[in-house]
Design brief:
single chain; Rossmann fold; five-stranded parallel beta sheet; globular
Length: 190
């Protein structure tokens, strides 16, 4: 079983990536294969609403989207991590998720049955709105989302992943989420 983690931060060493790495490390300890994709430096254009994906079975825009989508399609588990700058998921992540949903809907809803969950990271506030955005993405795509001891939110604001390492409660919540995710995946996939 494989879990793909996607970190949406544009920063080179980010708090968001640190939280996603923590979840993936926990999943590896539970016997899962993992991979991390950073959206930093990736070109992912917004959805044009052209519906070419309905006709051709894939998005016709040329950028880094198809490679990431294929990895999302192949993984049994998905973790989406986003920093929160203005009470919402970063645009790069939403562009990826909007396009992925359209392609999946027209291709036997290939996200259905996967297991996953969101992680959002903010300095002070805005987590809940962004967390809800990501939850709604998982739900509309038929992905099972395990819980934790709290919402998977991190409190961090300085660049360089320093704050994440000091957020013991946030990291603990992410570890518990990842353990629950591994448990659910083993029940579903055997």
């Amino acid at each position: 079983m494989k879990v793909l983690g996607i970190a949406g931060s544009p920063r080179p060493r980010s708090n968001t990536r640190e939280y996603v790495d923590t979840a993936l490390r926990t999943l590896r300890e539970a016997g899962m294969k993992t991979e991390l994709i950073s959206l930093r430096g990736k070109e992912i254009k917004p959805c044009r609403g052209c519906y070419e994906c309905a006709k051709k079975g894939r998005c016709t825009q040329r950028d880094d989207f198809e490679e990431i989508l294929e990895k999302m399609r192949q993984a049994e588990g998905l973790i989406l991590g986003s920093p929160v700058y203005l009470s919402s998921v970063v645009p790069q992540m939403m562009a990826l998720l909007d396009r992925a949903t359209f392609v999946a809907i027209w291709n036997q809803r290939f996200f259905t049955g996967k297991v996953g969950g969101p992680i959002t990271v903010a300095r002070r506030a805005g987590h809940n709105l962004a967390f809800s955005q990501l939850l709604l993405w998982f739900f509309i795509n038929g992905v099972t989302v395990p819980g934790s001891t709290y919402w998977n939110v991190g409190v961090a604001g300085t660049a360089g992943a320093r704050d994440a390492l000091e957020d013991e409660e946030g990291l603990g919540t992410v570890v518990n989420f990842a353990r629950n995710m591994a448990h659910v995946m083993k029940k579903i996939y055997g």
